[in-house]
Amino acid sequence: MNLQKIREEFPILAQKAYGKPIVYLDNGATTQKPQTVLDTLVRMYAEQNANIHRGVHFLSEQATEAYENARRTVRDFLNAALSQEIIFTSGATAAINLVAFSYGERYVKAGDEIIVSLMEHHSNIVPWQMMCERKGALLRVIPISDSGELLTEEYGKLLSSKTRLVAVTHVSNTLGTVNPVKELVRMAHNAGAHVLVDGAQSVQHIPVDVQDLACDFFAFSGHKLYGPTGIGVLYGRKELLDELPPWQGGGDMVDCVRFERTTYNELPFKFEAGTANYIDAVGLESAIRYLLSVGMKDIVDHEQALTRYALERLRQINGIRLFGTAKHRVGTFSLLLDGIHPYDAGMILDKMGIAVRTGTHCTQPLMQRYGIEGTLRASLALYNTFDEIDALCAGLEKAQKILKT
Ligand code: PMP
């Protein structure tokens, strides 16, 4: 993997912040885009823009074909069995809300239970709470160890005949923990429950095979995968999706509309009401093609090497507390420096051109678990370098010097 060449493919990385090279370590929030994705978006608007599915004309047919090709690329990327199992949404949040609504309507009744984990992003907590409120169901929570790993034995105890669905993140956006989802799915299925995997932080770091995981639903966002904002994916097993009612009503999701009774379109269109975000879907396809051209194996190897190095270097800093020390992990580091507010340290890093995120990272219950108000989070992507890890560590030490009284 030629890192220099890769960095040159991301125009934003050549920019400066306050006259200093940008060290972009906020990839958990969103990733930067390679030129090929930017070119695809411009090409789509410049050459192939027309509303899809409804037109008989040349441009509309081209745009429709591009959109449906994008769906096939996502299908192959996730190793889903069928294109109909790939639903384009506006992001992971919308995908989870879709399932929380439709699955809730179809399968959940008063007294049923939904299980989430303590390390979930708010996007994988609140939709289930809303559903539980609507249906009179109960939300149960898988606890974690101090190192930030799910307590699978406790999970086993939570599973029962009342459990309808387990919603769990593949990779924690705050701790970097990679959860044993295949095992979690197996246990849930044994208990007769379905599983939604939140893949917002996994698809960009590890190869995903939804058939191997055997999950029922899988959600992710394009913008964290080097693709555009405003596009995401819900994978769902066809037999299940066929049973679920639509989430939103509108154009494209219908078959025959009568005031007396409306019938719905087949999969996947049943869940894609209104004008689809076909441009960004094709942009996402372009991002996936880019990732595959770099090679997922090389990406994993590079990021894992960076992660090992970062952990070693970060641990050498005096007065640092790392949250999330799981054995299986990606390069997402949440930390605190003794006696220093993460926001203050983040501001000093910013002035050095280093972009990190501070706060709760939309995981307030996780912050509560550790008895803290927030952390400083550095999160890696395929274009990060060993020098950037050094810059981060030097920045943290500088923050200590400036802020320590
Ligand atoms: N789940 C996880 C684990 C995330 O990290 C995020 C984004 N931070 C989301 C869900 C929601 O993604 P989006 O805001 O793109 O819908």
Write a compact overview of the structure shown.
The protein has 405 residues and is an alpha/beta fold. Helix content is 41%, strand content 17%. It contains 14 helices and 17 strands.
What would you say this structure looks like, in words?
With 405 residues, this protein is an alpha/beta fold. It folds into two domains: 3-30 and 295-403, Aspartate Aminotransferase, domain 1 (Alpha-Beta Complex); 38-292, Type I PLP-dependent aspartate aminotransferase-like (Major domain) (Aspartate Aminotransferase, domain 2). Helices cover 41% and strands 17% of the residues. The protein has 14 helices and 17 strands. The chain has a seven-stranded mixed sheet with strand order 4-10-9-8-7-5-6, sandwiched between helices. A four-stranded antiparallel sheet has the order 13-14-17-16. Strands 1-2 form a two-stranded antiparallel sheet. Helix 2 runs antiparallel to helix 10 (278-294) and helix 11 packs parallel to helix 14. The mean pLDDT is 97. Bound molecules: 4'-deoxy-4'-aminopyridoxal-5'-phosphate (PMP). 4'-deoxy-4'-aminopyridoxal-5'-phosphate is lined by residues 91-93, 121, 123-124, 169, 173, 198, 200-201, 221, 362.
What is the topological layout?
Elements: H1 3-8, E1 16-17, E2 20-21, E3 23-24, H2 35-47, H3 58-78, E4 86-89, H4 92-107, E5 113-117, H5 126-135, E6 138-142, H6 152-158, E7 163-169, H7 181-190, E8 194-198, H8 210-213, E9 217-221, E10 232-236, H9 238-243, E11 254-256, E12 263-264, H10 278-294, H11 296-315, E13 320-323, E14 332-337, H12 342-351, E15 354-355, E16 357-359, H13 364-370, E17 375-379, H14 386-403
Parallel strand pairs: 3-15, 5-6, 5-7, 7-8, 8-9
Antiparallel strand pairs: 1-2, 4-10, 9-10, 11-12, 13-14, 14-17, 16-17
